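Lay summary. Proteins are chains of building blocks that fold into shapes, and those shapes determine what they do. In this project we predict the shape from the chain. Here is one chain we studied, written as its sequence of building blocks.
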Amino acid sequence: MAEAFVNDDVHHMACGVCPSRRFPVGGFDVYERPSKECPFSPEDGHRYAADGTPVCVHPDKVGLPVGRYKSENAPLAVTLELPTAEADLVPYLRDLLYGAAPVLLDDLIEQATAQIPRSFPGVDVLATLRRALS
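And here is the predicted shape, written in a compact code that computers can read:
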């Protein structure tokens, strides 16, 4: 079996009953919030969709966008949406990158590297990313 997405990290924000602590990315779905579509199982205290798919209901805590990764084989992807003001760029990138799941970081950095010069031609991309990640 593949390694769990949140592997023995007691400091991770994921709930103790989150499927991210038992399954790899793609081994569970991520819903926007708790709902009747994914009730707690009285047998084990975990949430499941009607088809038995394990469900996380706190995308912000696991750093993954909402998606039906297990039940519908949805691709794991996030779209970078840069702010309109240059002054907001570093804070936006800091929040985005620190809140994102590690599996998303390479893609987010690639998107930032491509988009920043188009949106902010005078900005040093590498310096901006360093400030955001420092």
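What the prediction tells us: The first strand starts at residue 29 and ends at 30.
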